[in-house]
Write a structure and sequence with these properties.
mainly alpha, two-stranded antiparallel ribbon, about 170 residues
Amino acid sequence: MRLPLLALLARGPAHGYELKQDLEQLLGSAYPQPNVGQIYVTLGRLEKSGLIEGESVEQSSRPNKKVYHLTDAGREALDAWFEETADEPRVRDEFFMKLALAPRSGTVDQVTLINKQRRQYLNTMRELSRLAAAEDRDNRIAHLLIEGAMLHLQADLDWLERCQEELEELE
């Protein structure tokens, strides 16, 4: 949550609730909705670490609000984040560990595990399809997020098929 908040603050000062609304509007319903409490805790941590500064702004009919802006250190952290590539190989996949250990445990059949996981992926795919249909057509970011998740799921389904074929050949 830290770096996405810095990215939103790069365009200009904002308070916590505005940042929450911006994230929700940008990412749509497919992405887990941020908790406003989590946002304010994160803003506090960012301020303590010197990446943002907050300023209390008076409001006539409401309590004062705190508006945050990016510091130079925050801009550097944000620039470094955008410079990094995402390298998340799926070598440490929990499902694969279960699949590999199933024969040694003697408690579950590998094909049963594959079928159960396949059902889970298909259910998730159906849920994503419903989200895509319900999402605002103009929110391309949300649609790209959903599409990416569905493509990953399809690759996972293809991989499960490959695992099952390999295991059947071993029998």
